[in-house]
Amino acid sequence: MRIILLGAPGAGKGTQAQFIMQQYGIPQISTGDMLRAAVKASTPLGLQAKELMDAGKLVTDELVIALVKERITQEDCKNGFLLDGFPRTVPQADAMKAAGINVDYVLEFDVPDEVIIDRMSGRRVHTGSGRVYHIKYNPPKVENIDDITGEALTIRKDDAQEIVSKRLVEYHQLTKPLISYYQNEAKLGNTKYFRIEGTKPVAVVTKELLAILG
Predict the structure, then answer these.
(1) Which residues of the chain have pLDDT under 50?
(2) CA angle 154, 160, 166 (to 5 degrees)
């Protein structure tokens, strides 16, 4: 089961990604985590990435695709994987397709911008695991404390309102075209595309995902 999650930052992808990972036993592949791990392990690709980052340059699409290809051959990906935050642009989606990385499901979380701004300002994160809470929609059992470890939750810099607004502009310019791209791929029979109303309660969205993924 190979899944791509699409949707603006704060559309609820992180919360549902945790559920999908636990339910289906597949890892979430974040390109940021993957880059950091490759650099730390000093793999050939990691060394290339470090060289670019040290020079203040962006890591190329080709390098990220190569990292994804390498990552999905690992044992924990044998039942599939979940891509969140990648591909971010149509050229990345094309490069992924050219590299033979096929995807079974593309799940789009559709949420209006004003709802996203409200959501993200209330977001709290457990740094160690990446678990995401919200003071209104998905609160921890104890205020500002992670349910599982009992450690303190933090507010990410990215969740400040002006940064959220800036990221939404970027999302609409770069990433939104992927919606048409993958809808077209679904029409061609290359994947299955589902749009999920992300304003619904977390439990309702989870139930919809179970119905889709089986």
Answers:
(1) none
(2) 140
